[in-house]
Amino acid sequence: MSEWKEEPQITADRDTGLQPWWRGLVVAAGCAALAGLSIALSCREVGMATLWYANAFGACCLLQSGRRGWWATLAALTGGLLFANGLAGADLRAAVLYAAPNLGEMVLGGWLLTRSPDWRQIHRSPLAGWRVWWRAVLLPALSGATLAVLLLGGTGVTPQSATQLWLTWFEGSLIGTTALLPLGLSLLVHREGGEGVRSLARHLVTGETVALMGLSVGTVVLALPHLPFPFVYLGLPMLGAAMRLRYLDVVLQVWLVSLTVGATIARGGLTLPPVHGDWQTLLLHVPLLAALLPPLLLAAAMESARGRQRALERERERLRQLYEHTPAMLHSIDTEGRIVAVSQRWLERLGYPVDEVVGRQATEFLDGPSRQRMLQQAWPVLMRTGEIRDIELRMVCRDGQLVDVLLSSTGERDARGRVVRSLAIVEDVTRKRLAEQLAVQFQRMSVMLASIGDAVIGTDERGCIVSFNPAAVAMTGWSATQVVGQFYGTVVHRRDLDSGEPLLDPVLSCLSDGHCVNGQAARLQHRDGSSRVIRETITPMRDPDSGALIGAVATFQDTTTAHELARTLARQAQHDALTGLPNRLLLQDRLQQALQLARRSGGCLALMFLDLDHFKQINDRQGHDVGDELLRQVAGSVLGAVRASDTVCRLGGDEFVVLLPQIGTAEDAAEVARHILGGVAQPYRIGGASLHVSFSIGIAVFPDDGEDEATLMRRADTAMYQAKRDGRNGLRFHHALDTGLGAP
Ligand SMILES: Nc1nc2c(ncn2[C@@H]2O[C@H](COP(=O)(O)OP(=O)(O)OP(=O)(O)O)[C@@H](O)[C@H]2O)c(=O)[nH]1
């Protein structure tokens, strides 16, 4: 023995928990028991030990003891062997001579087992079983038999010849170790795997195990005494059990069968073949070995196959779980296009139960155009190349909803390279497509908002700005980044057009009552201090589904030009173009207001008609332009003669009207008229000429001369004509026409 290699993985003995002396006692007792059993089963009639179990036990004990406990184990085994031989009647010398070859076998077997880890695979690899057999069974038996002949031959301890001794030793050791070593090694393997004794026992005591073991043992009991070639019959149940039972069950059965064979032979229940003694042992042991060894190898092969089968099933189950529960839409189809498997995600997204999907054509779940594309383009490519990538399709949910998908598929091929099935991954791109469409729409809207001439400002539900287009930037002077998050009213400063007072934030009122604020005109203050007139509209924005307010959009446009134009037009409509004085339209308006006031207050007003005297002559002599200028200067003179609250208007030609809205008496009006007459009496210097003009003035007084506009106008006109008739350059009151009063 060169070196005992510490086998780091052998842990059986190192954690038994037994005290060394107690363990030694157990080892010695076990060895003695098995040796004693073997001796007891020896067939004395033929002078041989049919099977020898102690060496298998010893090899296992040495294997599990490790390097440190090796000597103690060996000592215990020696003690056990000596005790058994002594008990069988051998003297000490004979016992020592018998024990020595057995110890040699144990050591050789144990050492060879530690050199190779094959024994751990014994239960699931026939090759490992074979290697273990010839290394730990055959070689030790050959060595032991040879050593026995060397030690015992010629000592008189045994009556057998050297050949007989070698044969009986070799065969007994070979059969006994073949029968027991696999059981011992299996128990060690199970113990290393953490399987307890109870679990092993529960597994062993099953109906099938007991029945098959009973069949094998019964075959031994029946066949050995009564049938020729009994081991042929024994082989059948043994092989049957090897195919059905676990390896541990089979090795236990092998050991029990060997025990039964040994017991049967010991009882003389075997009819030995009628040949010479040496041949008799061979013809007994070779068939027995042939009956015991193949079931062991077959059981390992079956265990291995079952292990592979279980691994395959686990793998298949794992793949099935992975397939069904992977968070992706998967389906598999056969060559006819029928769905054969589908993932949970696929079913959830399209809303189908699995039994409505499996077996149906995959194209049934596509809309019309997609079905055509699949059948005419994608499917032929898949069948030909075994692969298609990112085919854009539209699937139909159970409720009719459409789902945009990208389908990629890979074909499974048979041995001849033909596609027999394909696995498709379906990517739901509905949201992606929607997002793309929204992005395009958003871009278009952004361009539109940027291009639009009106300011467009979006706010959130609180009234804070969220978008601000370039027109708004131009009109307010704020940049979009400066205003986002600010209230509309703090950015868009608006004032009342007439009063100039700051206006409230219209977005806030729109958001509070949910109503549009339509076409409000206001003056917008630019950041640079300038202002412009705007017309703004505030519209609430609502969530299309819930109807809840989600913000507001304010739009306004610059209406400064239109506003100024309107004001100019309004002014032109009410004023005389030549003199800038109010015209008849405005006069009527003011007269109406003055009459209302006078009626309410009980006051008086006067309406004066003024007509230039002989103006035609000036026109004719000096020209129309001079006449125009004269009219302008005369208008200024009249204006200078009245108060700011009075209205001077030109009716047309050389006719003027003065409205005095508040007078105390008619004399007040006469005073003003005289003042006017005095004013225009001054010469006007126009174009180098000095021109003299005068007015004929007719006056009507409210309420004495009339109570409405038309009457007052008519009567003032009448009075004016009277003034003309009376010689011009004077004034006449209407109410004094009959009395001749009112002359200056
Ligand atoms: N330069 C100028 N002349 C005007 C304008 N409108 C009217 N006239 C002239 O004013 C004159 C008015 O003359 P009348 O009021 O009819 O007669 P008159 O010469 O003033 O004489 P009496 O009124 O009777 O004192 C006409 O010759 C018109 O052609 C105007 O806008 N500019």
TrEMBL record:
Keywords noted in UniProt: Membrane, Transmembrane, Transmembrane helix
SMART domains: GGDEF, PAC, PAS
Keyword Transmembrane recorded: yes
Domain PAC, first and last residues per copy: 389-441, 518-571
Signal peptide: none
Gene Ontology molecular functions: catalytic activity
An example Gene Ontology biological process: regulation of DNA-templated transcription
Transmembrane segments: 21-40, 70-88, 94-113, 133-154, 166-189, 210-232, 252-270, 282-302
Residues in PAS domain copies: 315-386, 441-509
Sequence ranges assigned to domain GGDEF in this UniProt record: 603-736
Alphabetical list of InterPro entries matching this protein: Biofilm_reg_signaling, GGDEF_dom, Nucleotide_cyclase, PAC, PAS, PAS-assoc_C, PAS-like_dom_sf, PAS_4
PANTHER family reported in the protein's UniProt record: BIOFILM ARCHITECTURE MAINTENANCE PROTEIN MBAA, DIGUANYLATE CYCLASE DGCP
Name of the protein: Diguanylate cyclase (GGDEF)-like protein/PAS domain S-box-containing protein
Originating species: Sphaerotilus montanus
